[in-house]
Structures are given as structure tokens and as C-alpha cells.
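The following block was generated as part of the benchmark described in Methods. Ligand: S-adenosylmethionine.
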Amino acid sequence: MSCCVADTGKQEKSVPNDPGAAASEHESNTIAEWEMYSEWWQDGFTDGADTEYSEQILPLIMKYLPLRGAMVDIGAGDGQVARLAAAAGLHAIAVERARNQIDVGVERGGGVLWLQGSATELPLADASVDAAVLCLVIEHIERFDAAIVEVARVLRPGGRLLILMNHPILQTPGSGWIDDHILEEQYWRVGPYLVETTTVEEVGHDVFLTFHHRPLGSYLNVAAEAGLTLTRFIEPSPAPGFLAETPEYTEADTIPRLLFMVHSKP
Ligand SMILES: C[S@@+](CC[C@H](N)C(=O)[O-])C[C@H]1O[C@@H](n2cnc3c(N)ncnc32)[C@H](O)[C@@H]1O
């Protein structure tokens, strides 16, 4: 499975959302987690290690990136998206906060310009890029609204923002397949949706990551207020490779794991 999608059986711990004192604690936890688990991410999810990325995520992003110009991959990890964009002829910039991701990204090469920085304070000039990608990042960013406003600032007019995320409706904390032995059916349970929560989830053996859940409307309204226009809204059926690993759920292909949105700056 992808590390980042809710699944039955995973461990979840809720952390109260306290926008005052607790805010910086979530933020520093996220920084520490990604320094600690960078190698786990690089080994399990990048450069062909994960079928969901190879079959679905990367092709989707490449399909909606512009053909030329500059792109920034925000929360780039080891830069797998930026490397592909550079190979396709774009000027690719990777912005990432975790030093352990950047070091491996630099080693892996591919003509990417690396900048250490935060999504909420991009180290880029106003109107300097044609596209920005947030791939499985926004759910780890506490101040997601600041990140979207920053993207709107650095995009040129006509530029686009590509967001790929865990489906915020169907993958809320507490969601998962239920085998109902009384009704003799399987169905998908959706966890509490309207409540903004922060959870720490065990996504691999001894790997604990912080996720922020907020309703879909929060993302759409912030993007609209930042002057971005929604131009694509794609809820792909889970990738064939993932479905092949999930034969126990007969309707697994009817519940999207991911949401992909493209916004344009007019
Ligand atoms: C799930 S990984 C995704 C990596 C990459 N986008 C990919 O798809 O391969 C999330 C990454 O976002 C980074 N990240 C989290 N919060 C960030 C922030 N506020 N600014 C920049 N990077 C951040 C983490 O360090 C981590 O490398």
C-alpha cells in the first residue's frame, strides 16, 4: 500500500488541534519525522519502488505539467517528481525541508535545482514558475492555507498548481473496509469528516507520521481566495498494482485512495 492512505488495521492516535500552543509542536514533529524516516521513504516509494507511484501518480502529474518552463516540486522528498519533470525538458526546482531527503536527491542527480525551505515560505521570487506540484505533501502541512497562498504568489499568470493527496473525503482517519458478517457484505466506512483533526499514524513498521485532516471545502476555498481557479478534479480508481494486492475486497476499485486537482492562476 502507499504509505499515505488510510487503511483498515493501521494504528491511529488523535492529537487535539490547538491552533495556539500546539501548532508549533505539530510542525516540529513533522520536521523530525521526515528527517528520521527519509530512508524508509526513499527505499519504499521512490524511483520505481512503489507501483502506485509508477502506475498512477507519476503519469498523472506528468500529463498535467506544462511542456516547457519552470516547475517547482514542493515537499519534493528525494525529488522523484522533479527528476521526471527535468527529464521531460522543464527547468525543475525541488523545495524540501528535510536535509536527509535533499542529500539523497542531490546524489540521485537528474538536473534538478535543490533548495532547502518550507512550503509555507517558498525561497522563490514572485511570479517565477509555470507550475507547482504538491504530491502527497499537503496533508503533512499544518498551515496548508499558507502553502497555497505561497504557490499563488510564485506562479506566473497562466501557471498551474497540481495537488495530489489522500482523498480527503474517503480517506479520513477511521476510514476503511468493513467485513460485515451479519449483513454478509463488505462496505467502506468513512471516518468523521467535518472535524479537523491531526493524527499520528503508523504507516509502516515503527514508522509514525503526522497527518492533518480537513474537509475538501477548506482546500477549495483557500485556493479560490488565493485567486486560483479549479480546472481539473480527478478521483482515480486505485492503481491496478494496488488492486492486485487487495483481492479480499471485491469492490476495492470503487473507492478512490487519491484525489488529484489542478488549479490555474488566471
Ligand atoms: C510523503 S513525502 C512526498 C515526497 C514527494 N513529494 C514524492 O511524492 O515523492 C512528504 C515530503 O514532504 C516534506 N514536507 C513536509 N512538510 C513540509 C513543508 N512544510 N515544507 C517542505 N517540505 C515539507 C517532507 O519532508 C517529505 O519529504
